[in-house]
Amino acid sequence: MRKAADVAEEASNSQTFAAVARAGYVVSGVLHVLIGVIAFQLAFGSTGEADVSGAVTSLASQPLGPLLLWACFTACAALALWQLGNAILGHRSSDNKITKRLSAIGQAIVFAALATTIVSFIAGKGQNSRESSSDFTVTLLKAPFGVFLLVAVGAGIAITGIVFAVRGFRQTFTKDLSLSSNPSVRRFQLGLGVVGYIAKGIALFLVGLLVVVAAVRAQPEQSTGLDGGLKALREQPYGVYLLAAVAVGLIAYGLFLMVKARTLRT
């Protein structure tokens, strides 16, 4: 364990490794922008998958697509390892608070999952999130106390969405950032964060709600991930406008993540 901690500390102190890890936020930002663009198109009648799989597919279809995916995988894997190092060693800028360590663990899991998704597409085994969400729901429902576990998972995702929205309203996302001293630039950065966090929160809340509904009704096909949640929003009164607003917010969140890659304190 001590040796692993030493390796993690050495890696976290490497400027090159830190730069690659920060690029993981850029990758996530690009994916969120693509999801937002697809969602905006869905609002006005186009087809597509407004989720990570749809965004990765879009990247793969670009010139040098395989090279882009390998670069994205490398950055996300590096960021997952970097956050794991933060979880083990603690943030130098936060007095090793337990909340920061838990946050680092959460981010390590998220980016490890993102890296896994990307590499599955590189290997030609990518699965859209609607299918993977339904498969996960079926598996969990078959487990002992599966319904309760699935409700807990859905509630956890929905609560995470609420936390994101609250962070957006309260602007607490700025604590770990070094924002510009230029008032105009700083307002722009804050605006992206507020709009982006609120939209991301709404999207997560919808996903969690669908998971809970699927568990209560024992209908795994209703657990359709982000794409299903956004398409369900479109079917509500004024859904076209609501979905368009959330889509713009997701684009803003993606741009904010790119800002975060540049301004994150270490």
Structure explained in plain terms:
It is a single chain. 78% of the residues lie in helices and 0% in strands. By secondary structure, it is mainly alpha-helical. The protein starts with a helix and ends with a helix.
What is the strand content? under 5%
Shape: globular
Assembly classification = single chain
How many separate helices?
10
End-to-end Cα distance, whole Å, is 23 Å
Largest sheet properties: none
Order of SSEs: HHHHHHHHHH
* Number of distinct beta strands: 0
Percentage of residues in helical conformation: over 70%
Unreliable stretches covering 5 or more consecutive residues: none
Cα-atom Rg, whole angstroms?
Answer: 19 Å
- Please identify the structural class as seen in this structure: mainly alpha
Fold blueprint:
Elements lengths: L1 H11 L2 H29 L8 H9 L4 H25 L8 H25 L6 H14 L3 H25 L12 H35 L7 H10 L4 H25 L3
Helix pairs in contact: 1-4, 2-3, 2-4, 2-10, 3-5, 4-5, 6-7, 6-9, 7-8, 8-9, 8-10, 9-10
Q: Quick gist of this model?
A:
This protein is mostly helical and 266 residues long. The protein has 10 helices and no strands. It starts with a helix and ends with a helix.
